[in-house]
Structures are given as structure tokens and as C-alpha cells.
Fold:
Amino acid sequence: MKTVKSRDAYRIIEERRKNYIYSSQENNFITSIKKNTVKHNLDNISRTKAYAAYFEKHKEVKWAFLASMVSRNAGWNMTDLKGRWFTLALDEKQRFPIFYTYELANWMIFQDAYPQLLLYELSSYYNKPFFHLLKIFNVSCFMEYEWEKFWLERDEERLVTSLIINEQNLIQYPVLQNHALKKKVFKTMVFSFQDLGHFSCVVFPTINGKLYGYSVHGFQKLSNRIELGKKLASLLFSKEHYQAFHEFSLRTEHTGGRYDYEKYMSYGLYRETPFLRCVYPVIKHHANFEKDWIFIRGKQVETWSRPIVTGVEKHTDVTKWFIHKQHQLHGLIAWKNWL
Structure:
């Protein structure tokens, strides 16, 4: 991405947004998109299913499949907090802020991204771009520019990267820099322990019982999350593994519990985490967006947009490593409770 020229384009888009008057047809589209976004942004289950269903209709928008698989991981992490082990290790006052952090980040991303997906669907149906309507949904000028580029050039890889960059920037201030969450989550011993010990991992399962993915380290750093997103996208759509991941997605109902994939593993594992909707209510959120991030952190877009250095590596098979880490974590919790 040539950011010098792009910055001029962002300013042009910003100015254009100030003076645009919407037609009655466009207002109808806006109302419909708002209703659909609210409908599917209830909880982790509804978001995951909405992303996956969208990808089945629009395979060229690869980010939707990535979002559905990462959303599955968010659900598994949420129900871990209500499962056998974390309830032994942490009390409710410690666990709820962690759940809320996952929930808020995922709600914000869906609230921003789903209208973009629906506007692309609308544009495809009418064979006419409607990306100028993104302003109504508080979507960054950066993404309006990128959707316009995609409409003309159909660069699928660029669109995936752009959406990763946008959504991670979106949550940087309201979630990662949130004063209350910093105190209750990111500066706690629990978070530091998981971060340093690489106990957190984003996994893509298969129905053959294999897990592929990357451990999550330095989650608070924006650049780290963007790099992780790019690596996960590269893995998800690799020739070696895409079909297996896609088959898992099609055949496996998302319940929010890790048993979704543990049932495919031959390690005698049984359900230790509950169904997400049995333990968490629908959380009401209120948008707390900063000024368009592209005018604050846009100078780094060119760096963030660079292709990842390495491709899919053999060590992305994390099956044994992940099980070992789970056993380590459970052992430490059992030891703590014994003491």
C-alpha cells in the first residue's frame, strides 16, 4: 500500500462524507443493515455463525472465514472461565473482567465489520458499489478506500490484510487501552502468567483430531496482533490445510465449549467446559469509538501491510504442544488448590 497517496485519498473520503445526502433507497438499505447487525451481534455463537454463513455465500471475502474461526477460539476461551479448572483457580470477580474483554472486543469488531460485509453483498447484488454508506456505520475512511480498491482490483489477499489491520486498530483504544480493563485484566498476574507461559493459543481444528495454530504472546501490542492475524490467515488458507479447516467448520456446530474439537481427538477427553449460552447472558454494549484511527496511526499502514516473512511451517501442528500446555496449566491449578 502506497500510504503517501493513500493519505490524500483518506482526506478526500473524509471531506466527501461531510456533504453527502442519502437517498430514500439508501436510507432503507442502512436501516436493514443496522437491524441485521444487531440481530447477529447478540453473543459469540451468533457472531461465529454469521461470519461462517457469509463466507459460504462470498468465498472471495476470506476474512469472514478467518473471523469465524477466531471467533470460535474466543468462545472457547470464554467458556474455559466457567469450566472445571478456571473456577478452581479464580473467583468470579477475577474471571468476569476477562470474559468481558473477549466479549467487548468481539462485539466491537462485529459491529464494525458486519455492515462492511453486508454493503459488499449489496454492491454485488446491484453490481454497483455502495461503500460510501460506510460513514453511517462509523467505519474508517481506510476501509472505504480499501473496499473501493477491492471492487476494482479484486485483490483478495489485500482485503484480508486490510480488514485485519482495521479491526485491530478499532479495538486498540476502547479495549486494550481501556483504563478499567488494564487494571482488572492486562496488568494482573493471571494475564502475565498466561502471556509469559504461552498458555494462550489460537487453534484451527480438523475432524481428524489435529490442531494447527500459533501461541498468543504480547497481545496488548497492536503490531503483534496484526502479525498474528496475518499468520493465521496464511495458515487458514494454505493449500495444505484449508480443506480440513473448512470441513471442520461445516460439520461442527459451535457451542462455545472446547469439546467442539476435543470430541475428534483420540486422547479420551470428555467435556470439561459448558455450553456458552448456558452460562453467559446477552451483554448490552455501548459504542465507545475513538476518532478515525487512520488519522492517528495511519503512518504505520505500510509496515503492517507487508507480507509475513515466513509461510506455513511444520510447527503449526500444535496438537501435542497444546495438550501438554493444557496439562501443565491444570497441574499448576491443582497444585495451587492443594496448597
